[in-house]
Amino acid sequence: MTGTHAKTALWFVVALLLWEGAARSSSAVRDTIASPISILVEYWSNTDLYAPHLLATIRSAALGFVAGNLVAVAAAILFGRFPALEGAFRGVNVALFAMPPIVVGPVLAILFSDHLPQIVLAALVVYFPTMAATLVGLRDIDPRLVDVVCAYGGGPSAILRFVRLRSALPAVLAGLSVAAPLALLGAMLGEFGSGVRWGLGSFLLGSLGNANPARLLGIGFAATAIALLGHGVFAWIGRRAVGAAMAVSIAPERSPDQIALAGKHSWAQRAALAAVALLLPFLLWGLLLRLSHISPIIAPGPIETLRYLVSGPEGADARHELLAALGHTLPLTAAGLASGMAAAFIAAALAVLRPGVTKAILPVATLLQSTPLVALVPLVLLLFGRDTAASVVMAVIVVFFPAYLLLSQGFALVPRPARELVEMYGGKRMKELRLISLPYAAPYVFAAAKLVAPRALLGVMVSEWLLSGKGLGNLLNASRGSLDYDMVWAGTVTSILISVAAYQAVTLLERLVP
Amino acid sequence: MTGERPGRSQREQGDLSIEDVSKRFSARGKFIQALSSVTLTVRRGSFVAIIGPSGCGKSTLLRLVAGLEEPDHGSVLVHNERPQIFRARGELGIAFQDPALLPWRTVRRNVALPFEVLGMPAGDYRRRIDDLIELVGLTGYADALPAQLSGGMRQRVAIARALVTNPSVLLLDEPFGALDQILRRSMNQELERIWMASPTTALMVTHNIDEAAFLADQVVVMDAAPGRIIDTILIPFSRPRSSNLFAAPEFHSVCDRLAAALELCGTAS
Question: Does residue B130 belong to any structural domain of this protein?
Answer without folding.
Answer: no
